Amino acid sequence: MTAPLIVNSISRSLPPITYHYSLLTVLSLTLCCFALSPAPKAFGVLPSPTPDGGYPGNNTAEGQNALQSLTSGTNNAGIGFRALFKDTSGGNNTATGAQTLYSNTTGAQNTASGYVALTSNTTGVSNTAIGAGALHGNTTASHNTATGYISLYNNTTGSFNVADGDRALYGNTTGTQNTATGYGALNSNTVGIENTANGYQALLSNTTGNNNTAVGFSAMASATGGSVTFNTAVGWNALVSTTANANVAVGDLALQNDTSGHFNVAIGAAAGLNQTTGSNNIYIGQGSEGVAGESNTCYIQEIYTNIQPVVGTDPDYVTINSSNKLGRGNVSSRRYKHDIKPMDKGSEAIFALKPATFRYKPEYDATQTLAYGLIAEEVAEVYPDLVGRNPEGQPESVRYEQINAMLLNEFLKEHKRVQEQQASIVELKSTVAQQQKGMEVLTAQLKEQAAQIQKVSAQLEVSRPLRQVVVNKP
Q1: In degrees, to the nearest 5, what angle opens at C-alpha 317 toward C-alphas 316 and 322?
Q2: Of 41, 101, 325, 413, which one's alpha carbon is 20 to 30 angstroms from that of 259?
């Protein structure tokens, strides 16, 4: 996107210097020139022959009215029409070009090269202006560097600025510690501070925003307003339209359409491209373009298609906590644990849980698929340690992996009870077998006794005398 540059012409002329001489004065001066030897300057008699442009105090003046007002300044070089015209005691200045450093009086260590460069400077020190109109409006500001046509043109009192490129930091007036490199970089900045723009029209429209960094063609070019602060944009048209703060866009077209969203991070070509007004989003990788207006989301390119089964000895789970911290979740080594105790009856709480079926709200699951699980608030009432909580302490999730361990504990407890019952049954069977064997022996004994009894009974029956039956005859 290319925003038009609005640049005032630098042709505004400086107030003309008017000389009021009477005819008598002119004639007197003319006669003196013919009648007298050359009048001594403030530093004494000029050497003969006079060095070309060389004057006492290591000063050099070449051009009409160059260094015209000098009194005690030293080591100055004024080359060009009215260069360093008003300088009196300023020293170590170099002015090359018509009206360069024209208004300088006591400013020192300034370098101006180009038509009207640093022309308004009066007391500012250690400024460097190279290019027509560079640092044109600077008056008392110091330690500025402007390289390029009308770079830092309107700067008056802003110090510690660096502008390298035509129209770079053109509109800056009092802003300080800005760095602009490239045509039109930070062109409209007026009072914004601590901005860095590197690239064609980078941060072009910024006026009062501060602490922004834009690197690349038109990076943050349309960003404007006092709320534009602490943004970082690296790439072609990255974060080009924002009016918000604290965004990071790295990559061509990254967060290009963001206007008022803040605290967004986009890394990769076109990352966060569709983001407009949402905040607190993260977009990582090309193609992570997001959705307009969304907030509090995170996209990582190709993470969905990167299949990695949790098998073997290496793969692991990744977890997050309520502070948004990522980490490994499947750590079971004793090295990471303390206060280790048997679970025992601690797992019996799962018998009070109430599994349910449900559907997630449409904004979380557009498919509206039937789901099975637990309700975190209900679980918290039964066993508070089984839920994950947000920073406000509200139940957010259920620690299903802990429930699995509790189920295992109950299974093992039940398995132990079954084993004990089976052992009892075996023992009982052994006892019953022994008793049955005893009964069989007793039965055999009883049978043998019965046989013996029957035998004795038979013997007794044989040995018993026969009864005589008397028949009574009639």
Answers
A1: 145
A2: 325
